[in-house]
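Appendix B. Chain record.
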Amino acid sequence: MDFKALRKTFLNGIFNENPTFRLVLGMCPTLAITYQASNGIGMGLATTFVLVFSNLVISLLRNLIPEKIRIPAFIVIIATFVTVVEMVMHAFLPALYDTLGVFISLIVVNCIIFARAEAFAFKNPPLLSAADGLGMGLGFTLAITLLSCIRELLGSGTIFGTRFMPEWFEPMAIAVQPAGGFILLGLTLAAVTGIAARSQKRKEAAK
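Structure tokens predicted for this chain:
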């Protein structure tokens, strides 16, 4: 396997096709659980685990899975790894498990995972598929952790429970509410899109 192809596939999920900031996928957990930074990184890493191993298994079995039943097969494979994540979190991270609640189980129907299974893992070799899952997963983790940090900082004055804002700072309660999630996500998307567009212009000018 060409290392450059692996690197390109991995970085694609973090930058060019970031699930949250570029493809705007997985909005349900992005808006629902990102009021604390710990929630964002916990959900992101759980999703990354499922992405990597479901991509890998689907790629390994792609020549054995009949075309007509590929969606049910995807569901069974993805649900298996979600169950593993759920059991591990329940055993070793009970506080985070209780906070994320039903959203851990809903990873099964996360459109990011289904999209990569259908568009990539079912059509590419195992190692490349695993790299795609890792890149997409870490891209999702970075995006929702960033949004979580912004919301927690504005809503509580803290990041990962550590105070960063001065004592006179008045927390913005709306930042940790659903409406604030929509607003801050929109502003973050606009900022990321603007930075990406400026970077592209610089590359074109340099050529």
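Further analysis of this model is presented in Appendix C.
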